[in-house]
Amino acid sequence: MHPETEQTAGPDPIAERVRALVQEIVEGSPLFLVDLQVRGRPGSRVVDVFIDSDEALGVDTLAEVSRELSFLLDAEDFIKGRYHLNVSSPGVDRPLSLPRQYRKNIGRALGVYYRAADEDAPRELRGVLVAADEDAITIEEDGGPSHRIPYSAITRANVLLPW
Fold first, then answer.
1. How far, rounded to the nearest angstrom, does the alpha carbon of residue 35 sit from its chain's CA centroid?
2. What is the CA radius of gyration of the chain?
3. Which of 45, 61, 83, 102 fits a disulfide with 132 by CB distance 3.0 to 4.6 angstroms?
4. What is the pLDDT of residues 67-116, one digit of tens each?
């Protein structure tokens, strides 16, 4: 195919519908959708849903979301054939991506990769997350200065485990 005639795929309609259903389920609660992936091919799809909460998130809550979502997916029957649904929390090894996730982790050590406005190469910063608002986070280096980093500059951020 010639580049000028190549078509790019639009949003996955299955993923978009699952996203809308999850949003309906968590609306009005402390729960929020972090990420969603639909993989596989028709007849053997895997739907991975990552949920987090502004409060403590337990296995019972994840199981309830899974039951509700499974019921809605089966009722609407828009995923043709068999599928496997996984509903879980993002876990500490998954990068932070939403301001709500940063706010939940204030006081914890983070490893942050970001791009400074005047540099091409990413920088790495390790320190304690001391603030997170709608625009940026503030990391305090151990015994050092504080750094305010806009979300738009962050390429990856993870909670650092104490061990």
1. 4
2. 19
3. 102
4. 999 999 999 888 888 999 999 998 877 899 899 999 989 999 999 999 98
CATH classification number, 13-88, choose in 3.30.470.10, 3.10.20.10, 3.30.1300.10, 3.30.300.70: 3.30.300.70
Q: Which long-range contacts (CB under 8 A, 24 or more apart) does 152-156 make?
A: 153/114, 153/115, 153/116, 153/117, 154/112, 154/113, 154/114, 155/113, 155/114, 155/115, 155/122, 156/95, 156/112, 156/113
d(CA 47, CA 26): 17
Q: Which CATH number fits domain 99-159: 2.60.40.2890, 2.30.30.100, 3.40.50.300, 3.30.70.1050?
A: 2.30.30.100
Contacts of 88 (CB under 8 A, 6+ apart): 48, 49, 50, 51, 62
Asked if 112 contacts 154 with a C-beta cutoff of 8 angstroms, the reply is yes
pLDDT for res 157: 95
Report phi then psi at 121, rounded to 5: -80, 140
Tokens representing residue 23 in the block: 């949003």
Supply 116's token pair: 């400074």
β-bridge partners, 48: 37, 86
